[in-house]
Specification:
By secondary structure, the protein is of the alpha+beta class. It contains 7 helices and 6 strands, in the order ααααβαβαβαβββ.
């Protein structure tokens, strides 16, 4: 995965509730959240992945990283296993999600892409060398199970629903 999950959700919520957030957070934090807008466009990620001959590039959309993982596995006709703790997420995304009781893994995830390739570690290194946030988060499996692991907890991903932000915006 390249980029942080929940970037677009964080920007949208910060713009909509900026005055409220400025009462509860330091101005620099709110400004940092607003500056995440610069990371929503993933074209630079896509171009680098293509230059490295990535066989599959999938942009995370409005249903978040969990929705994107489910959709990717469904389109490929495979299962998928991911480690939630490996999913890149910026602290700003966590704080805004907590403030609004929004799960950043199920909220608008534009600003990140998923890449399926044979050597995830090598692909991650290419992105890190260019200064991008990247991490190997899981693998494609032969089963139909779409599994997200968080320590000892195992969660089965379900078909994506609407954006978590629907009731807030």
């Amino acid at each position: 995965m390249v980029g942080s999950t929940g970037v677009s959700a964080t920007v949208r919520l910060t713009k909509r509730y900026e005055n409220e957030l400025r009462k509860n957070f330091a101005a620099s934090f709110v400004n940092d959240c607003l500056s995440l807008e610069d990371f929503i466009d993933v074209e630079k990620y896509v171009e680098l992945a293509k230059s490295k001959n990535a066989p599959c590039i999938y942009e995370v959309g409005e249903t978040g990283i969990f929705g994107a993982l489910w959709e990717l596995a469904a389109a490929a006709g495979t299962g998928i296993t991911v480690n939630i703790k490996d999913i890149p997420i910026w602290q700003e995304v966590i704080e805004i999600g907590n403030h609004f009781d929004v799960n950043p893994y199920q909220a608008d995830g534009r600003g990140a892409i998923l890449i399926v390739c044979n050597d995830g570690d090598d692909m991650v290194k290419c992105f890190l060398d260019e200064g991008f946030l990247a991490q190997t988060i899981g693998k494609i499996t032969d089963s139909n199970d779409r599994i997200a692991i968080n320590g000892e907890d195992v969660r089965y991903l379900t078909p994506p629903k609407s954006d978590e932000l629907e009731n807030l915006l």
